Amino acid sequence: MIAEILIAKYLHDAFIRPFGGDVLVVVLIYAFFRIFIKMNYKKLAFSVLIFSFIIEALQAVQYVNWLGFENNKFWSTILGTYFTFYDLLAYFVGYLICLLFKD
User: Fold this and answer.
1) What is the extent of the structural domain holding 14?
2) Tens of pLDDT along 57-71?
3) How far apart are CA 76 and CA 72, in angstroms?
4) pTM above 0.90, yes or no
């Protein structure tokens, strides 16, 4: 989690922040839910992937504006503000990494 915060706060490059951060966030969400939810790791990883895809789709319709967070840097960064297919690829890579964490 600390790595994710540091990436968001201090890295403004063209690869690590936009791609690596999105890969890492899927792994972090997966790891968090593994603590509390006892289910097949493949199903959990797939559920996190679908959740990530839904959030990305919501970014395409600018849901941050709906929530009134468009001027809040913290929430805009956490929730994301724009849709890109590269994020979907990053989420899929994160999903593949999650599959390495077997029961």
Assistant:
1) 2-98
2) 999 888 888 898 888
3) 6
4) no
